[in-house]
Amino acid sequence: MNISQQTRGRIGLTCLAVSVVLVWFCGLEWRALFSPDEGRYADIAREMLQSGDWVTPRLNGLKYFEKPPLQYWATAVAFALFGADEWTARLWPALTGFLGMVFTALAGARLAPRTRAVETALMFAGCWAYFLGAQFLTLDMGLTFFLTAALLAFLLSRAPGTPPAAERGWILAAWAAMALAVLSKGLVGVVLPALALLVYVAIERDWRLLRRLLWWPGLTVFSVIAVPWFLLVQQRNPEFFRFFFIYEHFERYLLPEHHRPGPWWYFAPVLLLGLMPWTARLPGALARGWGAPAVAGLRVDRFLVIWAAVITVFFSASESKLPGYVLPAVPALLLLMARNAPGGVRDPSAATSLLAGAGLLALAALAPSLHAPGGPVAMPAAYSAWLLGAGSVLLAAALAALALRRRAGALTVAVVGMGSLLALQLALSGVHVLDQDFSSERLIERVAGEDKIFPRDPPFYSVAMFDHSVPFYLGRPVTLVGNKNELGPGIASEPDKYVRSLDEFVARWNRDAEAFAIMSPSLYEKLRGEGLPCRVVVRDERRVLISRR
Fold it and tell me: What distance in Å separates the CA atoms of residue 252 and residue 246, rounded to the nearest whole number?
């Protein structure tokens, strides 16, 4: 039976899509939840579901107002539907990352038919920063998705041939996406789009663009989505406004108190490495994009450049910096590179991927020495095999792309993108060998089992330390002793849930008929030497879990 070329193409595209989906989601369960971020956000969602209070977020049983609740809600729903586990905890960033990839690919093709949706999607799938942002439980990918949705909705409203009703719908969708971005991570959800638009309008001197934003309907949509939770949480917690808006937004941005400093150029190497294997495309795409002509009154490529630049400069000016902060700039840069692809033999992506693969192979060879006593990083020899596999895949994909590009240049993106995606998943999946260094999962499971069944009534103290993953794997909060960590504001509201000193802990411990505690091995040896009555339940190199009974 003869199969037409069109049918073969559809079969190939279906197989490619299924492969991307499988590789994208298959690793969510492999790794334990790392402390602090993954343990923190998983535990907040667990407590929200367990308590039934969907208004006041709590971490380790204490009020936690650093971020809005949208991702907590989504994760709590995933826990309710499928159970509390690593993959359900990471499902929201993985899902929003995947949807962002698909939406951007389709929107890019709608904005410029020469931009192939499949190539754009594979650029997203293989991009190091974008993939990793979707695989770790942080709030950055959710924010990135809704900011990107707002950007694309605005651009689609200005696409050639868009009828008035569709234009209105896209504008309102942009307002809705900004509201969901605010519920994802706060005021940056509206500040960043506003700044980008104002910079573009000022440069282009096209103030008429602001009149097309449907201000009153848009503000109504925005308010209906974003405002109710803020009103409810303030009504129930009078301390919320001052902490969330003044401390968490303005003071955190302006003051270096969060101990996350960085030079003004902090995000330059983050972006250059994060955009791999497409980094070499960036200079040409920026140059061509800035000078691209307007279509239907809007310079789409220039707007993408401004969008990415505003996000990068905004967070570069902050006194608090983390690599994930600049993730919302990545989709705009990827779309810009897809729209201004060099193509054919001029595409440098294969060569860049070749260098990256060689680098991973070299890192695999060096891993044992890096993990040696006094070595710079925690990279045990067991991780070398995973790095070796990742580097080999990336190297093979690069060589295949180099061989193919003279005959079928369009295949370069497909081969490099899929090779990079598979290599990233291999390298990330191997991180499970580091679980014991960054998570309490293995320690707690030795006591509570995989079902995480642990007594809820006896006191459980976390002495002079706080591993954010412990409450999630225990399925219950712990009482902090002598270390408030980031929970100072919550402790201020409920001081009876905190033990101020070791002496007070010892006094309570001696009064308790049954109790548990977790602490560092050195502190355990100290307290045992002072006669603390206890028995070791389980221990590892970093933690000791003891019992009073």
Answer: 8
Same domain, 395 and 447: no
pLDDT above 80 for 13: yes
Which pLDDT does position 408 carry in this prediction? 60
The C-alpha atoms of residue 391 and residue 439 are separated, in whole angstroms, by: 26
Q: Are residues 256 and 233 in the same domain?
A: yes
Query: Based on the domain organization, do 154 and 102 belong to the same domain?
Result: yes
Residue numbers of the domain that contains 255: 90-341
| H or E, element range at 207 | none
Hey, what's the torsion of the CAs at 354, 360, 364, 370, to 10 degrees?
A: 140
Separation of alpha carbons 161 and 236, rounded Å: 49
Is the CB of residue 126 less than 8 Å from the CB of residue 421?
yes
In tens, the pLDDT along 19-70 reads 999 999 999 999 999 999 999 999 999 999 999 999 999 999 999 999 999 9
Helix crossing, 117-126 with 5-25: angle to 10°? 20
Question: What pLDDT digit, counting tens, does each position of 405-429 carry?
Answer: 766 656 888 999 999 999 999 999 9
pLDDT at 379 (0 to 100): 64
| Same-domain pairing of 489 and 398 | no
Beta bridge partners, 499, equal: 481
Return d(Cα 395, Cα 383) in angstroms, integer: 18
Running DSSP on this structure, what letter comes out for residue 139?
Answer: S
Q: Is residue 330 part of a domain?
A: yes
Query: Is residue 329 within 8 Å of 210, Cβ to Cβ?
Result: no
List pLDDT tens digits, range 246-301. 877 766 666 666 556 788 899 999 999 999 999 999 999 999 999 999 888 899 99
Q: What is the DSSP letter of 294?
A: P
Rounded CA-CA distance 380/390 in Å is: 16
From 353, 359, 358, select the one nearest 412 (Cα to Cα): 353
Q: How many whole angstroms from its chain centre is CA 265?
A: 21
Give the torsion sign (CA, 169, 170, 173, 175): negative
> 61 vs 53, 70, 204, 482, CA distance in Å?
12, 19, 51, 17
Picking from 158, 148, 155, 154, the residue whose alpha carbon sits closest to that of residue 171 is 154
